[in-house]
Amino acid sequence: MPSRSLKMSMNEKTMENYQAQVTELEALQSIYPNEISIVDHGVLADMNNYVSGTATETPQLLEYVVTISHSKGNCQLYVTLPADYPTIKPEVYARSELFNRLEQSNFNKSLSHVAVSQENGQPCIYFLISWVQDNIEKYVNSSNIKKNQKTPDNLEKEINLSFSRYWIYSHHIYSKIKRKEIIEIAKENNVTGFCLAGKPGIVCIEGDSRECEDWWQRIKAMNWQKILVKYKEDESLENNNLDNHRKFSTFQEISFPSSDRHNDMGELYRYLTEHNVQYVFKELFGLEGKPASTA
Fold first, then answer.
1. Is 125 exposed, middle or buried (0-12, 13-18, 19+ CB in 10 A)?
2. Is the pTM higher than 0.90?
3. Per-residue pLDDT tens digits for 17-58
4. Phi first, then psi: what are they for 285, rounded to 5°?
5. Across the chain, where does the E strand assignment appear?
6. Distance, CA of 127 to CA of 63 (rounded, Å)
7. Dihedrals φ, ψ of 106, to 5°?
8. Which helix (H) or strand (E) holds 158?
């Protein structure tokens, strides 16, 4: 067991990290008074109480959105701060109607590399905002060029649809920003399935193979502690009818929290069984599933 002095040291470091997050946000709000939107003000209040010593429960993740103006529109920089930030790197993700899908993915890959390259222990959100401001024009121009490069009609007709179903495992899915993006991009790409929020996090997407892969590349570009495709199903189509192959009619978020802050795997197995995909439980977790007790 950790010694008493080690526990105190860990608590002091946690307090120091939260204080740095609050101080950085206050500084950013003074520079960008109208551009920053806090996702959950209750989290910020909890964090202030924790730092002041009036609360002992560890706050949830601080998340906010920075709207960055461009001559042709806006770009939103989504920021999620892990509890250990700035000791570890922030989670950042940009989205704009000015980007096409490819350039948005490329932009976020570059943004992620920039974030990872920042010095540990130093707040860096202001630098990342500046990087977005300095680099957005290049990606907007590239998006516009590719937007005007139409695929020949005869080539489009030769492209046949194929069906895929991705089973994705994440260490956890808590971030409200990520959960919102998972759902929004699923709607944009017309993929169905579900997102199991919490710990562990599981996502199933199904639909046109190209749309599934695009969804995966865009979501993967966000910062994750751990996320991977654990299992993938591919099927050939007859008459290009995707809906005949779907197991889910829509895309929705689900959650089965248990008392220990983990998802109830029995409830997940029951949900998978209801959609006739219970076979994937072993692919995801390496063991046979059992339905939750009804007692």
1. buried
2. no
3. 999 999 999 999 999 999 999 999 999 999 999 989 898 888
4. -120, -5
5. 36-38, 62-70, 73-81, 91-95, 162-170, 192-196, 201-208, 227-236, 251-254
6. 17
7. -65, -40
8. helix 153-158
